[in-house]
Amino acid sequence: MSAGHTHTYSYELTGFDLTAGILTGLTLCVVLQSAVLYQNFKPWFKEPNLKPLPSPRHFLGASMHSFFAMVVTCAVLTFTFSRLDFDHNPIIDYWGYNNVCILFDTAPSTYVAPIFWFFVAYLIVRFAVEDTKRLMQMKHLSLSLRRTSYGANVFLVAVAASFSLCLAIPPQENMVMHTSPFAALMIAFPLIFVMHCLQDQNRKMVVVVACTSFMVVSIVKFIFTFFTLLQLQDIGPVPGVFSRPIDLLWLLFAVSLPFIMPTPTVDLLEKNVA
Known about the structure:
- This protein is an all-alpha fold and 274 residues long.
- The protein has one domain (15-273).
- The chain contains eleven helices and no strands.
- It has helices at 15-40, 42-46, 56-80, 90-95, 109-137, 143-162, 164-168, 175-199, 205-230, 240-260, 268-273.
- The chain is globular and about 60 Å long.
- The termini are far apart.
């Protein structure tokens, strides 16, 4: 679709279907989010004063579980209640194929997803806070690396806050503003793992390869997204045969690395000195 083309989309959902969809979404939100929090913080649910407290990795992993629960819930709502036309919608007109964003863009998902995102964003913020506390105790790191790592955490929090725009602005209203926060997340999220890799003096080669690959895939995905949003007459969107595999690869890295990437630990001597 070129920049000059406009389309009309009508997916209005009202009455009983809308009410039933929202109630179903809220029920799934309560059930799945409770399961996510309990599964990730089970020892502290049973013993609130347990030491040590949850590590940054616990919060980052919980945020991914929470986001996955959000995707599952919105998928159920979209396929069960939504009147979305999977062959004619803003996503397929812009990108040439349907991606995961399609699950968040119509009612009743538009009413439930922001509630889910509150939990995801909260867990990301808690990760950034706990990770920054950890960094403050790692005195052996260079000042420049610590400052860059602080900046990466702040950037991730800012992106988590602005990501709400993806849910608030429909793609048919403004695709650039709808997509831009996610484009920022493409860089902010892998940057965290790159920082952890640089901080870890005992890092293994497989970790270096995983972090480097994630960042490279993220940069490629960001470039593809940028050119597609430009909607240039002579270039057009990146063909799905190239962009779709990159989408899937990025999602694979994003959902797996929080659970396999070790968080650099604070040396006991450093902790005692601090």
